[in-house]
Design goal:
9 helices; 15 strands; five-stranded mixed sheet; alpha+beta; elongated
Length: about 375
Amino acid sequence: MKKAATFAALALAATLAGGLPTSPAAVAAPTPAPQTPDASAAAARAAAMDGFKRHLAEEVAHRLGERQFRDALTRELSDDGEADLAALLGSVPDARDLAEYARNANSEILKLKGLQAEESLLQIRIDPKQVKRISAGDTLVMATPSGDEKAVRTVAAFDSKGRGRELDAFTAPKLPVLIVGLDERKDAELTQRAVRQALTEAGVGGTDRTGAEQPQQTAGVARQVTNIIGIENLNDHEPWYKGGPEIYAFVAGAGTDGKARVDQIWMPYIQQEGKNYFPGQTLIEWGNFLWSNLDVVWMEHDDNADLSGLVRAVVDGALTVSGYGQYTPVADKIIGALPSGWTTDDDDYVDSCYNVAKTYQGTLSCAGNPAGMWTYVAPKTYS
């Protein structure tokens, strides 16, 4: 009802402004690429990542019996419920050996994910409302799984005595749970950089935008854009232990030079499933493209073991449109090139919108409806 009321208000405003153009036709997402021997290698990488996180979770649980360690946890998590794991462990004298293990594990995880970076990704987190309830007897510690979350029904957790316990993957327990995993926001930023580097090396241009920043102005030059007026992630498929989604979009087509172009747009403000956001964020900067119609592919960043499948799909899909003087579908080429695990796991591929026109105002009609993205857009000119 809330979304319907919001849509009605937006539709009325558009009608008063001159009417709603016909919505772009919804197109079913193409069949993903078949599995290859790479799937077993990806599973092995995911298992290796899980091994590091599971060991750290068991060790953290064991140390919950130490008052000094619990005090450090409470202190570091008291702000927002998140802390760099290696730094936290390094602040406790008796846990510095584990801190060294965490640093080495972090380096190995970066390599497994194909990220050339030195950032610290491993973190420990808890629901901020549960921080004061951390204790030796009633607190559990778990590690986030790196595989396909749709196939996960239970997750393993540990107590301070080393006993294991299976938790429901879809319902958060009443006991406080410390979660050893990756900093999803930082991981998303590294992913964006890795994808952009691969695109650049392949000769695919583009820009990356995050948040609600507006396009750069050029004196005397009008800039036509399509802005996101309202947006809602209808189903993020995120289990309770993962927190909010990391939603982003690829806007793909031919650049002004006729060569393939892909812009990456991140939406860090989307934190909850089923909530309407009104960012006024620029989705498409038309001055960067040759075409007057473009495709948009929505994705949700996840704890994937290897980025090579995504990078290869975006590069290969985008390059197929180089030299085309008019609109040709790009989204299906990108999605079709994704390994099947990416599209069967809805936490990765979210939705795709085809043939979005420069003058279009209204709700995008996309392949993933009713479980993808609800997005209301409108054109705007900056001068």
